[in-house]
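Sync notes, pocket subgroup
Present: LS, DG
LS reminded everyone that the earlier model was apo-only. Rerun requested with pyridoxal-5'-phosphate included. Inputs:
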Amino acid sequence: MEPHERISAKMSKFRPSLTLALKRLAEERRRQKLPVYDFGLGETKGELHEAIKQAGERAFHEQHTMYSDPAGMPELRQAVLKWLGQENAYGIDNVIISSGAKQSLFNTFLAICNPADCVLFDSAPWVSYQPLAVAAYAFPVQVIPRERHEQDLKIVPEDLERNLRMRPHAKLFLLNNPVNPTAQLYDQDEVNALLDVCVKHRIYFVYDRLYWRLVFDGRKFPEPRIDDRTRPWLIQIDGMSKNFRRTGGLRIGWAVAPDDTAKAMVNLQSHYTSGPATPTQVAAITAISQPYDQGLHDELQALRDLIQKESEGMPHTRVWPTPATFYSFWDVRACLGKRTPDGKTISSSDDVSEYLCTSSGVITASGTGFMQDGYLRLSFATPREDIVQGMAAAKDALGKLR
Ligand code: PLP
């Protein structure tokens, strides 16, 4: 076997997840005792809720360590329906618990796509959508808005219709709302209009609502319309990773899907994971069954205000509004073509991101990971002092571009 044949052609094209690479970069700088203002990885911090800690401990004590139902523990599936307020719309057989929302997405692609079926993504797709679709032998396509707006990248039904005319093999449209990385929020009418297009064309509308509790300034999260017409085409993706503190590593996510697709996902999961780890399922039951602690939401809203204030006047940068999530999205296209103090020409947002990191320890995620070169994503789920100092360091560094 030749060296290039040792890894499959498909996998040899894969790069490590951008966001996890950022985590390593920040750790490396910390190890070298260099300054780090870490806006890279999208992960909430702070203390794990006491009740979740205790539930996890109890799970081991009470020996919840055997295999669970491959679809997930029935109590957790019921709790998910209550958490979503959808107990009257679905039964527990429509809920499949997985090892994180990533696996729920992969299950979705594997369950419904034949090789080369097209999957349509929104204009700034989250980093792992494309690799997961490709791993499922599907063909990912990014839907671009025909009319470009100043401060959002939202698509409208006509954009989706245009793509569907060109792609008769489209199987699904995936909308992440609120959006990672742009932080934009599609409103109720916009969501319903895109859902209607999917139903009309008999393709799935996959709604990744992973940040749905983190919607600011009194806005309401747009629930998808669930009725007899939409139910066969609607798949919702959600999980534990973003709406709580420090829970990404529990690796619990879920999909809520129509009967046939749910069954296909469970069959699949019964062969490759037998369901997620039982102790963290027990912890998740507690987390989503108790009244939702608004503390994280309120803290993130205050940090959103802080980063918006501290980033005012950022050289060569337009900072977009953040109505939801914990991301600040920066348009840095005005930096392209400029030179750094040591003479390097900036030609992409990768270069801006690298320059900010190496010159001042400001870690950001480049838009290229989200198919949007010219932009940066900054996660502000980080201490206040890091935001204040990090914004000052970024202003200083970007101000030196000529
Ligand atoms: N969907 C979106 C939009 C995300 O931002 C992420 C994680 O960052 C995921 C899915 C995957 O979540 P999980 O960590 O639960 O697998």
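DG: Residues 42, 100-102, 126, 176, 180, 208, 210, 239, 241, 248, 253 surround pyridoxal-5'-phosphate (CB under 6 Å).
LS: Residues 50-289 form a domain with the Aspartate Aminotransferase; domain 2 fold (CATH 3.40.640.10).
Action: DG to write up.
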